[in-house]
Specification:
The complex is a heterodimer.
Chain A: E1 21-27, H1 32-48, E2 53-59, H2 64-69, E3 77-82, E4 87-90, H3 96-109
Parallel strand pairs in A: 1-2
Antiparallel strand pairs in A: 1-3, 3-4
Chain B: E1 15-16, H1 23-26, E2 31-32, E3 36-41, H2 47-61, E4 66-70, H3 75-83, H4 89-95, E5 97-101, E6 108-110, H5 117-130, E7 134-138, H6 140-147, H7 150-167, E8 170-176, H8 182-194, E9 197-206, E10 209-219, E11 228-234, E12 237-240, E13 256-257, H9 262-267, E14 272-273, E15 277-282, H10 288-301, E16 306-310, H11 315-323, H12 330-335, E17 338-342, H13 350-364, E18 368-372, H14 374-378, H15 384-400, E19 404-409, H16 423-428, E20 431-440, E21 443-453, E22 462-468, E23 471-475, H17 487-492, H18 502-513
Parallel strand pairs in B: 3-8, 3-9, 4-5, 4-7, 7-8, 15-19, 15-20, 16-17, 16-18, 18-19
Antiparallel strand pairs in B: 1-2, 9-10, 10-11, 11-12, 13-14, 20-21, 21-22, 22-23
Helix pairs in contact in B: 7-8, 13-15
The chains are: A alpha+beta, B alpha/beta.
Chain lengths: ~110, ~525
Amino acid sequence: MMNFSSDLTPDPSVPDTSDMLTLTLYIAGDAINSLRALTNLRTICDTHFKARYQLEIVDIFEHPLQALADKVLVTPTLVKTAPEPRLSLMGDLSDTATVLLALQSAERKT
Amino acid sequence: MSIESLVPSTSGTQKMPTGIEDFDEITNGGIPRHRTTLLMGTPGSGKTVFALQMLVNGANRWGEPGIFVAFEENSRHLIQNAFTFGWDLQRLERERLFFLDARMSSDAIQAGDFDLLGMLASVKAKADEMGAKRVVFDSIDVLLALLDNGRAERRELYRIHDWLGESGLTGIITARSEIDRPAVANRYDFLQYMADCVVLLRQSVQEGVSRREMRVLKYRGSSFSENSFPLLITEHGIEIFGVRDETRDFPVYTSRVPSGVDTLDVMLDGGYLQGRTVLLTGLPGTAKTTLCGAFLEAACLRGERALFVSFDESKDEIVRNLASVGIDLQSHLDSGLLQIYWSSREARSAEEHLITLRRFINDHQPQYLVVNPLWMMLQSGTNMLNIISNTQRLMLLTKNAGITSIFTSLLSEPTEHAEETPYQISTLADTWVHLSYLVQDGEWDRTLTIVKARGIKHSNQAYEMILNDQGITLRDNPPVGRPPQSPHQAASSDAGNPSDAGQTASATDLTREN
């Protein structure tokens, strides 16, 4: 039910793609942790990175072998693939300060 | 003997053989199928090797693919280690083994509560894809430390437990035990409660020698042996010296085997009892090794197989010294009937020697065995209780194999080697022959006494033992003179004592004495 994914190719209407925050959230179906992570992430992104992020959601129940290939083990896990460096956050992202710090500090590095 | 035959048909718990030497006997068939086995142990006790070996054996012997989830070491490192055990993991990995490197990456940040749902779903998918039957989580404490929350830990442990039950996989979870830390001990209480089978591995260092042991703490729905068993990590992986060698259903023979000395055979009413143990005691230089050599040479001359275990002299020394008294071992070494296993006792535990000896016995299949001297095999790094139980293990090992054995022992060892006062061993040995000196007119004569010979009509008198180039003969009526000296007296008298030169000299003395 929660398996919606967005296109990873940069949207041409967004002017500067180097600033684009590219995120993948791995969830486990409708487990409480996973639902919470999704809600928390949307809130954080819509507040702080509005229109500057792309989010792909991978439901491990639907794509278990992909998670294995991506070396994602615990759920939920948020992986930031761009901008560099790659970063992963484990947990339901309820710790907003940590999430924000991780995403922002990484953003400043580029 | 097939593993299946060991599983009682009435048993409600299905077993999965691990293929680990003697573990399957101790547990009456292996670990519980479709269930969780907890493998606890101190660092370095062999948990990872044990778990990996179970997977490799499953894939190789029973065609059951397996998955190894490594929270700790990376799989590449494991594969490299495995080569030392002769396991070709790279070949197996292509078809029957899958290694999941589940170490948390260093860039991972924790931001709230998480669970293992994703990982278990992935592993299940992989298991379905490859038809896996066995799975290992090594080691769980890394994961639990990450959760760092008692309730979350229990929740996830239950999750793994239930997942194993539902997935049809058989699981081993390893955990590092640190019993001295109460907070951690609590965690393991719960783990032990949850698991269907709990196996404890331990490593300790005694007198500079490493010892490992294994014990089954719990096995739901199955009988098991509760004893602690010596465990070794050898070039073949984990080897356990287990219950099989402690069963006492050894074959009982009534026949005699030649001692290699015709006159001794007469005194023993035909020879040593077949399949039994002989204790041979005496000071250095009383020709213990010569008597052993005669025994094995006679066996080989009859075309039978023999094994000489020496902790004293090297192979070359034994062959050379015995050749000087007309005992030819070299031709039997050449023909393959005789094997000599020589080991320095340094830094090897008695358990290691026992397991090595078992391997030699399995490979060479000797009917006759000499261990010279016994205490060197059994004393290193062990306390008195261990010495006694290892002596029993050794005797049962040889008796179960139907091997007629001679174990030699000195009599003048310090008391801390209390095993040396051979009263402990002598109760276990079936025959006890003692060699000593008799001093008469300034001459040292060797004597032989049959102290005990269970089930044999024998004489208790001391015989004079004569060694010459025709070999050993016993003279029926010993010379009248001072009574045989006690070992203590013999050891303390120094002037002109031929024993000063020790065992090696005894062989060269012989021609002179003739």
